[in-house]
Specification:
30 strands, mainly beta, five-stranded antiparallel β-sheet
Length: 366
Amino acid sequence: MTKILVLLLCVLLGASEVVNGSVHQKEKVGVFELKKGDLSLKVTNWGASIVSLVLPDKYGMLGDVVLGYNSIEDYKNDTSYFGATVGRIANRIGGAQFNLNGIHYKIVANEGNNTLHGGSIGFSDVVWKVKKYQRDGDSPRITFSYQSFDGEEGFPGDLLVTVSYILTGKSQLVIIMKAKALNKPTPVNLANHAYWNLGGENSGNVLNEVVQIFGSKITLVDSKLIPTGKFASVKGTPYDFLNPHVVGSRINNKKLAATKGYDINYVLDGEKGKKIKLAAKVFDKKSGRELVLYTNAPGVQFYTGNFVQDVKGKGGFVYQAHAGLCLETQAFPDSVNHPNFPSTIVTPEKPYKHLMLFKFSHNKAL
């Protein structure tokens, strides 16, 4: 069943899900707000996606720093994964296939011969259940859940997934992604695909924002952005963000694998013995806003919205290339086909947990 046909059935029948080719009624799709102090987060259970994040700039003016849309229907038709939870496997799987415990799995190819972000109907294109919701208080939070069925997009085993968004501390967002294999071993790599623009989602591009990435190596890729299995040092290359650099200062360098900008996985360094590591910092001089990202994941995909073109977003603002940047903490892409990469295999005895901590502030420089 094609994605277009599935989505058409969902529209005709209301909020629903498709399991093994049949449509089942499910709870209504909505937008939910979490609010703590000056920080306001809106999310939707369509794709467990971030819709907006509003916070002050150095002048105290509130602004939305996440690219997105005006309506749920726009999210259903989205091809850029704005704010989405992507999976069962985020990023790319070469040849849309892998072997696991002696069994060859052919999964759905949706980017040429390869699989991107879970296939034609990944976790970003389904309705999630709302399990818990507390709008405000000391620790506002919402938890979404989704049960992925055995064979969905070609992946083995039933998988129970939850994503929690929590506002905590002073201007902090925590995202916790969990997954439990219910009957079979299966690969899992979930990521959040928010596009950040600290100047404001309608302020233009992010080429003047300053980025620092705490990864001294990248996973080398081929012309289709599929990892070769080898690593390379970033030192002396346009990928070197060990010290803060303006995003646009080297973005047109011919040595970049993605010809229109950055789209690469960094191997995060971290401190030995610590489960949570510093992944990246972003600073916008004009607004004074800063984002600091921590994670327990081994890698982070730095993507500069290279393929965003003429996308009508919030308030009718039209997004173009580099309108936002993504920092997708994750396992390494195509790990299922590279035994030298950290394993992404989840079993009933070995569940999955992915943590992200975003700390926001303003009027500070890197």
